[in-house]
Amino acid sequence: MHNVPFPIDMVFLDDEFKVLDVKKGHPEEDDIRGIASYVLEVNVDSGIKKGDEAELDDEDTHKYVMKVLD
Asked: Where are the beta strands (DSSP E) in 1-70?
């Protein structure tokens, strides 16, 4: 998280958008690793957890929005 002055959650997703892991990133920490098809950087303490499934939707807004599915 070089050049990120605030903590974030790093969400690691597989190719079907299932959450494989969530790691806390801290300012100036350079060594956050995980095996994943995708990584999302989201607000710290997002509530997203391992095993959650996500849907990425950009049809209406032309921005990606993550929705955690129950």
From this structure: 8-13, 19-25, 38-43, 53-57, 65-69
What are the structural domain ranges in the chain? 8-69
pLDDT given for residue 1 in this prediction: 59
Strand-strand pairing, 19-25 and 65-69: unpaired
Match 């801290």 to its residue by tokens: 26
C-alpha 59: how far from chain center: 20
What pLDDT digit, counting tens, does each position of 5-41 carry? 888 888 899 988 899 999 887 776 666 777 888 888 8
Name the DSSP letter for residue 18: B
